[in-house]
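Instructor's aside before we start: the two examples that follow are unrelated to each other. I chose them only because their records fit on one page, so don't look for a connection. First example below.
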Amino acid sequence: MSEQHPAPKADAARKAPTRRPGQPKSARRRSRELALQGLYEWLISAAEAGVIDAHMREQEEFRGVDAAHFDALLHGCIAEAALLDAVLAQHVDRKTSELSPVEHAVLMIGAYELKHCLDIPYRVAINEAVELAKSFGGTDGHKYVNGVLDRAALQLRPVEVKARNAQR
C-alpha cells in the first residue's frame, strides 16, 4: 500500500447497487471521485484548498457533480485532516503519511462521511469508499480500505453498527 500510484482520473440506497456498465454515475459518486482527485493533489502538493477547488471545478467531469457534497468532502477533509488522521491512525497498520496518497485520500473521504454524513448509511459510505479504491487505488487497496473503515465505523457510528449486527 505504500507504493505510489498515478493521480486519480476519473448514492445509493440501503444497499449500494452495483452500477451496470454504461449506466451513468450518480452525482454523489462523481463528487466523491473529484474530491478524491482534489485530496490526492492536496496530499501530494500541499496546495491551498481554494486553488485545488478551482482546479477541480475546471474539469469537464465537474458537470453533473453534487457540488454541495463535493464541497463538503474536499473542504471538510482538508480542514479536518488532522482529526480524520487521528481516527484512522487507530485502525491502520502504519502512519497515515506512509499510506499511498490514493488510499489515504479514500480513507479520509470514508471517515469524513462516517463522521458527518449521517444521512448516508454507514455500509453505503464504506461501499462507496471501497468502489473508489477499486477504481483508483492499488490492486488490493480496496480490501485494506474496507477493513479500516469497518473498524472506524464501530467508533464513529456505534449505534448504527450495533443495530445492524443485531439484525443478523
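Example two begins here.
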Amino acid sequence: MERARMLMKLVNLLCLVVLCNAIESPQYAVVHSESDFEVRLYRDSTWMSAPVRQLSFEKATLLGFHRLFQYIQGANLNYSRIAMTAPVVTSLVPGAGPLHSFAYFVNLYLPVKFQADPPTPLPELHLKPFEWDSHCVAVRKFFGFAKDEIVVREAEKLAISLSRSPWANSTSDDSGYAYSIAQYSSPFQFIGRVNEVWVDIEASGIDGCKPSTKNIATS
C-alpha cells in the first residue's frame, strides 16, 4: 500500500512536468556503438543534486525528485522558475551491493540559462549543484518502468557487455558512483518507455573516448 501511494505521488509530480516533452538535455557525442551498448562523450555541465538515503531505488528517486521539483518551481533564493529537463538521473553510491546501499543521488541537468549561475536552493531542500566534467560514459538502453529489480538486472547486463569489450576493467572510480539510471519518459507513457544505465569509464584520448590499450585482453 505504501509503495502504491509513493508511486502515485511520483506520477502526479512527473505529470506536471511531462519528461518526454522536456526541451533541454545534456549534450554528448556518440563515439562508439555496439549491439547492446554505446560509448558517449558528454560535455561539461552543471546539475542540481539531491542526496537520499534509502534502500529502494524507486523510493530514492521519488524522494529526491520531489525536492528537485520544489526547487525548479521556485524554492530557491531567487524565486526563479526553472524549465524541466531530461533525463532524471539517479546515481547509486557503491556499497554492499545495489540493494544494500543506503545512498543515492538524484540529479537534474540545469538549462543552459542557469548553467553558469544556478539559483541557490532553499536550505531545507538539502540540494547542491555540482560540476560534471566532460567524460566518457558507457550506456545501455532498456524499456519499461525502472523498478528496483529491473535496474539491478540491466546494470549487470551492461557490466557483462563491458567485460567482453575493449573497455573491460575501464570503469572509472572518480565519479564515486557504481552506476546511474537515466529516466526519460512520462509516467503516462506505457509503451516504448526509454531508460538507460550509465557507467563512467576511463579512456585514453578523452576527446575520442578511446579504450586504454593496457585494458584490452590478449590471447
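The chain is about 25% helix and 25% strand.
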